Amino acid sequence: MADYREAYGQSLRDPEAFWRQAAQAIEWDVEPTRILDDSTAPLYRWFPDARLNTCVNAVDRHVAAGHGSRVAIAYDSPVTGNAEQWTYAELLDVTSRFAGVLRDLGVQAGDRVVIYMPMIPQTVAAMLACARIGAVHSVVFGGFAPAELSARIDDATPRVIVTASCGIEPTRTVEYKPLVDAAIELSEHKPESVVVYQRPQVEAPMGERDVDWETAFAKADPAEPVSVAATDPLYILYTSGTTGKPKGIVRDNGGHAVAMAWSFANVYGMHPGDVWWSASDVGWVVGHSYIVYAPLISGATTVLYEGKPVGTPDAGAFWRVIEQYGVQAVFTAPTAIRAIKKEDPEGALLENYDVSSLHSFFFAGERLDPDTYEWAGGHLGVPIIDNWWQTETGWPIAANLRGLEPMPIKPGSPSVPVPGYDIQILDHDHQPVAVGSEGDIAIKLPLPPGTLPTLWGDDDRYIASYLSDHPGYYTSGDGGFIDEDGYVYVMGRTDDVINVAGHRLSTGSMEAVVASHPDVAECAVIGVHDDLKGQIPRAFVVLKAGSDIDADDLQAQVVAMVREEIGPVAALKEAVVVPALPKTRSGKILRRTMRGIAAGRDEPVPSTIEDPAVLDALRDILQG
Ligand code: COA
Ligand code: AMP
Q1: pLDDT of the residue at 165
Q2: CATH says 2-466 is which class?
Q3: Strands, DSSP E only, in 325-472?
Q4: Which residue from 284, 569, 572, 573 has its CB within 8 A of the most atoms of ligand 1, so it is best to mutate?
Q5: What is the pTM of this model?
Q6: What is the pLDDT of residue 227?
Q7: Which residue among 103, 104, 286, 538 is least crowded, i.e. fewest CB within 10 A of its CB?
Q8: Going by CA atoms, what residue is nearest to atom 18 of ligand 1?
Q9: How much is the pLDDT for 543?
Q10: Where do the structural domains in the chain lie, given as residue ranges?
């Protein structure tokens, strides 16, 4: 691991030299002379005196270098029967004209734009158009309900919302515009305009503040890129925390561009002109970093796939896409392969396709379970690479660095700390644990470029949520250990965040909804194992004294409420009535113990428990 060790060592010993070198991959308007500003530690800023435009780096510069005819986006949409290839020149045209639309609507550098869109190329153009004029985009995943969208509107206070008339799910067409209207109705902040991209499947009703994409686009002149400070925000992406209120993860322009270029080459081993497919959604961080920014900044072709891995038309959809576009590497969540494996356990459909272009298959978003690892490796015959990271970091914290120096794969581990990340396993006294012992996975500050500088408008919450558990460190929220070879093992969240089909959700926000049911005295929502989705939420409900509601009715109502308030993506399907919840003598619900029992672990009875008998009843339900 000579190259890796050298790079990793230098990144920690002399981070400024390391990232100064990496910054050469980016086209700057003003080159960085200072690399790291630590004057406001624990808040750090990278490239504080540099200026650039992220859209120029992702699009214009490739066209200027003569690659305008290279495919930037290969859009493939089995759910609509559509496929389009957008070259870099076409992407530049649409992006700069849509930037003109936004500018004509009064959007200026620093203004926020919420994007609530399906997986279509116009969504990528809208993101890049914001970057072009220095506006800050906040993409909200389409599976979230109006109340969640509204919470994000009130936090980000956008001048404009960009949406489409619909998204397409296997079982239904989701009309986005009524959801946006309902969200604005709920919000205190009212955006000035809503730009609507009308898709042929659904015609969205238009109101006074609504602007038709095509009409505005036809009239708009292209907007020139605006030079922004490297430390200016590029986007806000909301993610789930322990409480119901989502956290607005901020991404800056300069550090992000450098991290995208560096990671695409060094972690994923991809080069300009390569064909890359990240089968995720632009609403999640994987979509931001590895559908949009990293491949485009690096001048690669990114496949934009609108659909599911199975059912469109069958479980061979992934293999068809790999063959059709000559995809060299795929990045998805293990749940996607579990879905394929469920439909086609022997991988028989693979035989209908030539997937020989593929050199690697990357997984992230949740633990890579051994069955998925074996199945994918066995059937695809390429290295199966796990990588661990989070919305907050924006790019891998631990990985097998395929571009820098491929290293042996150990199933169960995303491999080693990525250069820039000083990973330490700490105990409750903030001390490093012995090799092989479990503890909190923490990262010594400063975090590398591209990671969150703060939470949107809330430095205090950033410090309280991430930097206070272990002073001098960023606390990841995951627990795990490092083995004698330096390989990191991620064992799962230590808080109340769960991962359902690779989607990060807060059990706290589900509890708030369930608790608002008139018959519910108290409740706990925990993540339990699911063969397909990895985890699913299950609610445990104690009824109010005197309530005689039927358990099935209660479940149906609670499930409908969560779907209505949070969205279908919450995937809560079960609410179990229990006589009592296990609690400490001071009244705190022992969620951790519940999670342990649900996972089939032989949980010790906590010494603080109020009534140990409650656990027995719960064990029967949870393990049954
Ligand atoms: N807009 C509207 N609704 C959406 C949505 C969107 N963008 N995305 C999901 N939903 C809905 C689904 O239709 C489903 O609704 P339903 O309860 O009426 O069926 C619900 O939210 C739950 O979605 P999901 O958890 O994705 O379940 P699924 O059964 O539809 O699909 C998988 C399961 C595994 C096939 C799917 O999650 C998948 O392809 N995952 C790939 C990995 C991935 O994208 N990971 C993201 C981070 S890397
Ligand atoms: P998100 O912010 O949606 O990317 O979710 C981040 C969380 O997903 C992490 O904190 C982990 O709990 C989990 N996660 C992501 N990737 C992995 C991985 N490779 N192995 C284990 N857990 C992962």
Answers
A1: 98
A2: alpha beta
A3: 329-332, 360-363, 384-388, 398-399, 416-417, 422-426, 439-444
A4: 569
A5: 0.96
A6: 98
A7: 104
A8: 568
A9: 96
A10: 2-466, 497-623
